[in-house]
Write a structure and sequence with these properties.
Blueprint: E1 53-56, H1 60-66, H2 85-93, H3 97-108, H4 124-152, E2 155-159, E3 166-170, E4 179-183, E5 191-197, E6 203-207, H5 209-212, E7 217-221, H6 224-227, E8 238-241, E9 253-257, E10 260-264, E11 275-277, E12 281-288, H7 294-297, H8 308-341, E13 355-356, E14 363-364, H9 370-384, H10 392-409, E15 424-425, E16 437-442, E17 449-460, E18 463-465, E19 481-483, E20 486-490, H11 498-506, H12 511-525, E21 530-535, E22 541-547, H13 551-562, E23 565-570, E24 574-579, E25 582-592, E26 600-606, E27 612-618, H14 620-623, H15 633-648, E28 652-661, H16 663-677, H17 683-694, E29 699-710, H18 714-723, E30 727-731, H19 736-745, E31 753-758, H20 763-791, E32 800-806, H21 807-813, H22 819-828, E33 831-835, H23 839-852, E34 856-861, H24 867-872, E35 875-879, H25 886-890, E36 893-895, H26 901-936, H27 951-961, H28 963-972, H29 978-983, H30 989-992, H31 999-1023, H32 1031-1053, H33 1059-1080, H34 1090-1095, H35 1098-1125, H36 1129-1151, H37 1158-1163
Parallel strand pairs: 16-30, 16-34, 20-22, 30-33, 31-32, 32-33, 34-35, 35-36
Antiparallel strand pairs: 1-8, 2-3, 2-4, 4-12, 5-12, 6-7, 6-11, 8-9, 9-10, 13-14, 15-36, 17-18, 17-29, 19-20, 21-22, 23-24, 24-25, 25-26, 26-27, 27-28, 28-29
């Protein structure tokens, strides 16, 4: 329907203002920060409740004594402090099961009978890993600490207790009750109620870019009762307000002054982080400070995040531990059996000597009895096989992640030239999670959009004017606007339709011209836009920059200026407009701001001709019901057609109407408004009723089409993500109509989708709506399945579903039994759009998916209202650049544009997941091969746990011989090129299906390790069975073979070679040979020169070749057959890349050989 793409100004209701008082909003209007109110706010504590906060203005000490002392104004976003750093960091690190395992081993090594390594050095490997990780975590937290210090030590002007004088005070020292003065362009240090402003009417303008990422101005008010008083008189005031709470969309309070109670509402509080704009100064009293401010209460703190692979790795480590314990049990049992069978020979056997005669007398020697020997064998075998679980893996992972992060930050495809902003990695331990994202939760304003509206077309008196022409550079307006001898022109001009311009200029007496004239008067007056004068290089020319709460309003006012209706001045009581070169003043008698029930905004003005006119604009669904339809039906029909056309283009639409009020009707309205505005209860409903009574029988003037400029590449990015199997959900505080409109603009919603809309205001109605939605989903899904079965390949994808739900409904659903029903509906739908949601509701939606599914989640936003959502998700991304920094500071990664998600996820995410998955499995394989190989030797050494490989080579195996190659592969290997991954988004699928790391692959790796260890052990044993080769030489054979084997195995799996990989893999192999030779060159070693003699024989090299062939043959055969019989997407894409390279090479050869036979070319 047309209404699905309509839009309205994005702010909440301020009531109509009577003629007898200045233009101020009703205290209980709910329009903070240009976002919809959180319905949960209705449940907030009323000011009259027993736990209401009492704030004695200018008396912070007295305020603190009335109840528990309010928090100071210092904020803290760090995870640690000096006391908690060590215990909390150790707790977080020991969530890795491997660390517990190695800690237990180090403790056991302190027992003399079990000591394998030096007692002092037993904790060194684990200690080094813990220390390096703690340094990294400490550095990250120190960065947050520095940011907090900079914030807490900023200075603000605070009223001295004596009154009358303001003195500088650090932000962290501000207390509840302090009176604070903020100058223009300064940031508000706490949540404060404005008492006075530079404007005599108490109006101030604030920018919430640090809170919600929006740069447009919002209006906040000081009550006239306090604005007119000197500072020393404020000390008698008492504010009763609700306790600190999370609801940044509402505020309930009263101020007691001179025996009167004055109501305060959301427009009477300025939140911490807002900036004062277009107002010389604002003085307010602090009501919430520090961690009790609304923005900090919505900050859930920096969470401890671990990657999905690292969490799953604990499962494999436990399996390896069980296998190791089984091995140890087998060794201990076999030892007991062997000792019992050879109990009469223990005095002389080489491995166990029961008696020692070396000192002349018999004494016990190396034997503690059968039971203890079995126990010691079990415990010593744990030490012997401790490398089964690779502690070096964690160091390798950290090095690879650090390098991956650096390469991501250097990626030019994620660099934004407009803001000179690079991609930033703020968390170094979840890079691989970027390759497994299933759900993307995105904010709208500043994330998907630029928050810049552009007027595109208009329908006036039933005529479509959409043939806009670009303005001539330097053009001012149809008529120059001159004020005080200076030419003023709008900062931005929009495309204008020549026919409409001609109508305004030359058709003043025709009905169409009158409609057009009133149309633009409505556009230029029915808003809250304030003109701001900017200097230019030419002193005789000034620019008019329009600032307002709604980007829609700004776009409309700029459009009116381009057509000759230039807004010159707006105050609380009048509006000055340059109408086609003629200065006109309109008295502002009252206005009804937009609210989500009426979906309209209206203004009542006294025109220069003494008439009183009501101008109204709003969504078409809300406007057509209040239009006078007894005449001008043809205009109505044509306007509806134009609206449908605009909506199909994804434009935000508004309908403009008007009505002239008689004196009697205006007086009646003024009387009812005065009565409603002084009501003690139900004030909002009464004021809404007043607006509904006056907004009726309107004459239609026309409609507008506004384009909300999306960030570059957003529709293409969303389409790429959806093709990759990623579901994109949009969570916004905007109205439902606005959200739907943006959904169409960014191609998130399409006309082919069936929309399920849930707008309920009670738990029972939510339950009924969800039940109906589930039934509809099941019905449509079954229909889609039958259609697919009957049409087969003709069906492109079945029926697409989109769920659209608002914040009031989520209040009754989240954290109740209805969550399960919402989960069923949401997971069935292809698209979910949540509108009018509060920050914690955003986090609640993310938590809903995290609790009920193992799928990975990613949240992306740009404002403080997105912080909770960002921190709740598995991966949080903050949009940086021109927006605020709150989201960036709370994020794991930051970028300047939404479109950068595509290369981040589809390219770097895919690469990182592939690299890290392979690194983990390879490390398990590498250590398992070595441990299994040494295990076989126990069958030939009386289960004595002796080893033919030198201790030095055993330590160097994981630390030097095979360590660096796997790290380099984890940094540089690429299974597919960037071009292929971006071209075929479906190649992101392996990460969603856990295709590169799962239990099946782990089992196969272990079986392969078992086979390779068997070949490694028995081929040399068979080859040298009848020779005089000593055990030291056999040990050299085994260590050289296993190193070369695992490195060749690694080389077989490398997809994309470069010189670094060649250097590390073959360099480490060469280093292994050199080290083994060097170790055997020591006269103190039992295998003195053993390696040299060994490598001088042909048997060694033949044995070496047989090991490589036999060990890798099963793996090679399986890979070949799987690639030809059941190739996966990655293998197919790699073959496609090879064909492309051959084609490109052939094309180059042909182009470089122009004498080639053209007939032969055509034949080819």
């Amino acid at each position: 329907m047309v209404s699905d793409s309509s839009s309205e100004p994005r702010h909440e209701p301020n009531p109509i203002l009577p003629l007898s008082r200045p233009l101020l909003p009703a205290p209980n209007s709910s329009a903070p920060m240009d976002l919809q109110p959180d319905p949960a706010g209705s449940a907030a504590t009323q000011p009259e409740s027993p736990d209401a906060r009492l704030v004695f203005v200018s008396h912070p000490d007295r305020t603190a004594t009335q109840h528990r002392s309010p928090a100071g104004n210092a904020i803290r976003t760090t995870k640690y402090n000096f006391i908690t750093f060590i215990p909390r960091n150790l707790y977080e690190q020991f969530r890795r099961v491997a660390y517990i395992y190695f800690f237990i081993l180090a403790c056991m090594n302190q027992i003399p009978q079990l000591t394998v390594y030096g007692r002092e050095t037993a904790f060194v490997p684990l200690g080094v890993v813990l220390f390096l990780t703690a340094v990294k975590d400490g550095y990250e937290d120190w960065q947050r600490h520095r940011s907090d210090n900079r914030e807490n030590n900023r200075s603000a002007a605070v009223l001295l207790p004596s009154g009358g004088q303001f003195a500088p005070k650090k932000w962290k020292d501000i207390r509840v009750g302090d009176v604070v003065r903020c100058e223009a362009d300064e940031t508000i240090p706490c949540d404060m109620v404005p008492l006075s402003t530079a404007d005599p009417t108490g109006v101030s303008y604030v920018q919430t870019i640090n809170l919600d990422g929006e740069s447009n101005l919002k209006t906040r008010y000081a009550r006239l009762e306090t604005a007119a008083l000197p500072p020393e008189s404020w000390s008698a005031a008492l504010i009763r307000c609700e306790p600190p709470n999370l609801n940044i969309y509402g505020f309930q309070a009263t101020i007691e002054l001179d025996g009167r109670q004055i109501a305060l509402g959301p427009t009477n509080i300025i939140l911490r982080g807002c900036e004062i704009k277009n107002t010389a100064w604002v003085i307010g009293v602090a009501v919430y400070t520090g961690m009790e401010t609304k923005v900090m209460l919505n900050n859930s703190g920096a969470p401890s995040k671990r990657s999905r692979l690292e969490t799953k790795m604990n499962r494999e480590i436990i399996i390896l531990a069980v296998i190791m314990l089984l091995y140890c049990t087998f060794i201990a049992t076999a030892t007991g059996i062997w000792l019992h069978a050879n109990r009469d020979k223990l005095d002389t056997l080489p491995y166990y000597r029961k008696a020692d005669f070396s000192h002349g007398g018999e004494r016990n020697y190396l034997y503690s009895g059968l039971a203890l020997e079995i126990l010691f064998a079990f415990l010593k075998s744990i030490f012997s096989y401790q490398n089964f679980i690779p502690i070096s893996l964690y160091i390798s992972m950290e090095i690879s992640r650090l390098s991956q992060s650096y390469m991501m930050t250097q990626d030019k495809s994620m660099y934004d030239e407009a803001t000179d902003t690079k991609f930033q990695c703020r968390a170094l331990n979840i890079n691989e999670d970027l390759g497994q994202i299933k759900y993307v939760f995105s904010d709208k304003t500043g994330t998907l959009t630029e928050n810049k509206m552009m007027f595109r077309c208009a329908s006036v008196c039933g005529v479509d004017y959409s043939n806009g022409e670009s303005p001539v550079p330097g053009e001012v307006a149809p008529h120059p606007t001159v004020v005080d001898g200076q030419v003023r022109r709008p900062r931005r001009m929009v495309n204008t339709d020549p026919e409409l311009l001609h109508l305004l200029e030359n058709g003043k007496v025709t009905m169409e011209a009158i409609h057009a004239h009133n149309f633009f008067l409505a556009v230029v007056t029915c808003n809250t836009v304030v003109p701001q004068i900017l200097p230019t290089s030419d002193p005789a020319v000034k620019l008019i920059d329009y600032q307002g709460e709604s980007p829609d309003e700004q776009a409309l006012v700029y459009a009116a200026a381009s057509y000759g209706f230039v807004l010159i001045e707006r105050t609380s009581g009048h509006i000055v407009v340059d109408v086609l070169g003629e200065r006109q003043r309109f008295e502002l008698l009252g206005l009804h701001e937009f609210d989500s029930d009426r979906k309209r905004m209206s203004v009542i003005v006294a025109c220069p001709d003494k008439s009183i006119k009501l101008f109204v604009k709003g969504a078409d669904s809300a406007m057509f019901s209040v239009l006078e339809k007894s005449h001008e039906l043809d205009i109505l029909h044509e306007t509806e057609k134009h609206l449908h056309s605009y909506s199909s283009l994804g434009l935000r639409t508004l309908v403009i109407g008007m009505r002239e009020l008689g004196t009697k009707e205006f007086e009646d309205w003024q009387f009812t408004y005065e009565k409603a505005s002084t009501a003690l209860s139900g004030r909002t409903d009464l004021l809404r009723d007043v607006a509904l009574k006056v907004e009726c029988n309107l004459q239609i003037l026309g409609a507008t089409g506004i384009e909300d400029e999306l960030q570059q590449g957003v529709p293409e990015a969303i389409e790429s993500l959806r093709q990759a199997g990623i579901k994109v959900w949009v969570l916004t505080g905007d109205k439902q109509e606005t959200a739907i409109s943006i959904g169409y603009s960014c191609k998130l919603l399409t006309d082919a989708m069936t929309q399920i809309i849930i707008n309920s205001h009670s738990k029972e109605s939510c339950r009924k709506s969800l039940e109906d939605a589930i039934s509809m989903c099941e019905k449509l899904t079954s229909v889609s399945s039958r259609t697919h079965n009957t049409q087969g390949a003709m069906d492109p994808g079945g029926i697409l579903l989109a769920l659209i739900i608002d914040g009031p409904s989520l209040v009754h659903i989240l954290e109740t039994e209805l969550e399960e029903e919402l989960f069923k509906v949401a997971t069935t739908c292809d698209v979910v759009l949540c509108c009018r949601v509060a920050p914690l509701q955003k986090a609640g939606i993310v938590a809903l998916m995290k609790k009920r599914t193992d799928d990975m989640t990613l949240s992306i936003g740009d404002g403080a209202n997105d912080v909770s959502m960002i921190q709740m998700a598995d991966v949080g991304i903050g949009i940086s650049g021109q927006e605020g920094r709150q989201a960036v500071m709370a994020s794991d990664f930051s970028m300047a544009q939404f479109r950068f998600l595509v290369p981040l996820l589809l390219v770097h995410g895919h690469w990182n997941y592939h690299r890290m998955s392979y690194m983990i499995l390879y490390n398990f394989y590498r250590n398992a091969v070595y441990v299994f190989m040494t295990f076989w030797y126990n069958f030939y050494s009386a289960f004595s746990l002796s080893n033919t490989i030198t201790d030095t080579s055993g330590l160097l195996y994981s630390a030097v011989y095979t360590a660096l190659p796997t790290v380099m592969v984890g940094i540089y290997d690429q299974d597919l090129s960037r071009r292929t991954l971006l071209k075929y988004s479906q190649l992101y699928g392996p990460g969603l299906r856990d295709g590169n790391y799962n239990l099946k692959l782990f089992v196969l790796i272990m079986l392969d390790s078992l086979w390779q260890s068997f070949v490694l052990f028995y081929v040399p044993l068979f080859a040298y069975n009848h020779s005089s080769l000593d055990t030291s030489s056999l040990g050299d054979m085994w260590i050289l073979s296993v190193v070369v084997l695992v490195n060749v195995h690694l080389a077989m799996d490398v997809f994309r070679w470069n010189w670094i990989l060649h250097a590390t893999i073959w360099g480490c192999t060469a280093v292994t040979f050199a080290c083994v030779i060097a170790i055997d060159a020591s006269p103190s070693m039992p295998g003195y020169w053993a390696a040299n003699h060994l490598m001088a024989s042909k048997t060694f090299w033949l044995c070496f070749l047989c090991i490589l062939v036999l060990a890798l043959l099963p793996r090679f055969v399986i890979r070949v057959f799987s690639a030809y019989l059941q190739p996966n997407d990655i293998q197919i894409a790699r073959e496609y890349e090879k064909l492309e390279k051959r084609y490109d090479r052939s094309a180059v050869d042909v182009s470089s050989n122009p004498s080639a036979n053209p007939q032969q070319e055509s034949t080819c």
